[in-house]
Structure formats: C-alpha cells, structure tokens
Amino acid sequence: MQIRKAVIPAAGLGTRFLPVTMSVPKELLPIVDRPLLQYVIEEAAEAGVEEVIIVTSPGKESISDYFQPHPALEQRLAVSGEDELLAKVAEAGNLAKVSFVLQHEALGLGHAVLMAKNAVGDEPFVVILPDDIIVHSPGVISQMVQVSKDMNAGVIAVEVVPWEVVHNYGVVDAAPVANRVHKIQGLVEKPPRDEAPSNLTIVGRYILPPQIFDCLEKTQPGAKGEIQLTDGLLTLLQDHELFAFEFLGNRYDGGTPMGLLRASLAFALDRKDTSEEALSLLREFQDRTNN
Ligand code: G1P
Fold first, then answer.
1. How far is the CA of 134 from the centre of ligand 1 (A)?
2. N or C: the chain end with fewer CB closer than 10 Å?
3. Helix (H) or strand (E) holding 195
4. 203 CB within 6 A, ligand 1
5. CATH of the domain at 161
6. pLDDT single digits (tens) 113-169
C-alpha cells in the first residue's frame, strides 16, 4: 500500500540547544540555510508522501509560520526580479500538504505519535524524527518503502553503533533474513549496555501500520518516565511482523550542537554553491590549529 502520510514529532523542549531554543524551535535550526525540518520533509516527498502531520507543542508556533505563504516577501522579490530567492521562499510550502496537531504535555515520543491518530486514520504511515538527518539518493524513506512492500510489514531503520553508545538508543533484537533486513524479535528503549540485546540501534524512521495507535494507547511510561514509541512497538510485535532495515546513507545527529555543526560542514562541502568557501574555511582553521 502507498505510504501517503508522515508524522513528524516536533514537540520537544530542545534542551540540548538551550538557550537558543527558548525562542527558536530546534526543528527550525539550520543546516546551511534550510531548517532541519525541511530536509526530512524533502526526503518524505521524494518517497511519495503527500501529507505531513507535524506534532508540536504550545510556544512552537513559528514552525507553522514557516509553512505559511509569505505574500509580502514574495511580492517584493518578484518586483525586484530575484527569482532564485523567490523559488527558495516557495520551496517549503510546495513539498507536501502540512498540518499540525498539538501535544499539550511532554509525555514522551510514543505519546507524541499518538496525538496524530485521527490525522493519520486507518492507513500505514511513516514516522520521521527530524533530529536524524540522513544523506543518500534514493533517500532512506524511499528505501524503506521498498522493503515494506517486499516484506508486506512495518519497517524500522537501524544502524550498527559501537557498544559504548547503545544505551542512548532504542535497540532491536533481530535475526537476519535478507540483505540488510532483519526480522525483529524484541525491542528495548535505552537499555544499560550489559542488557542490550545487540548493537543494532533504532534511527528515526519507521513505517508502521495504524494498529500502532491502539498499542500506544495501552503503553505505560517506561524509560525516563515517558511513554516510549519503542514500548508501543513491542506490543505491536505480538500480532504484527516488524523488520529492521540497515539503510544506505550517512546519518548526522542534528539533535546536538556539535552534530548539527558536523552536518552543516558536510552539507556545505557537498553543495556546489558553498563547497569552495567551506573548504577554504576548513583549511584556515587547520592552519590555525597547526600554528
Ligand atoms: C528516540 C527513540 C530511540 C531512537 C532515537 C533515534 O530517542 O526513542 O529509540 O533510537 O530516537 O534518534 P531520543 O533520541 O529522542 O532520545
């Protein structure tokens, strides 16, 4: 079945980016010149997603402002013939239909996804965590849509990480069944290292059946006292198959200041219009540290 809808949780406090997140939502922080959110919506649109449901919280209204038309700005740019800038202004609104639901209390990722229940309805959908920026062509969601069709089941993106950092992630217990594809037997959110079933950790892309919502309704607070998506997935596993997919692509952690800096450098080095300047910037800093 076609995946038409994406849910993007964007209701968090963004504490790792304080103080800037006192007034700018983390999801609007830029990689070069576009907000994190825009990169993940582009990835979804490439995979055929037509409708994006963003879960926000009170105080993060600037996220919806970003997707509104900006007629005064557009008119000014049109009059002065600045077509390239005009195209940039129109980009975000043209990618997909964007709607918003509110999570009033910060009760966890699973609870945030549950807020999108009515907006998603009775069809499979994709959950995208905008902290995880992944570069590849085709994008990770396109790759996962294919795996989901092949296996006729839900798919969760995973990657192998060093054992020292497994406790920061959701971890899957899974057995390989095809190239890069593993059948999930269990999942656990942020286990201590010695209790982790593997070092195959969850990355923020999930293709899920709508039954996940019933599971989330029954899910009790878990790790960090929050209603965890991972715990809802464990309930879903009782009568739905789920597969873990080791995607192709480079992942950047846009959820921390240094991760975002790393992503910004990587993107600036890759982009035709910025690569030269970014490279000389790096050389300049290397010279500085050598002296
Ligand atoms: C969330 C999920 C976790 C997953 C991670 C990926 O955790 O709960 O299972 O591994 O995203 O980025 P968070 O980073 O929000 O603590």
1. 15
2. C
3. none
4. yes
5. 3.90.550.10
6. 999 999 999 999 999 999 999 999 999 999 999 999 999 999 999 999 999 999 999
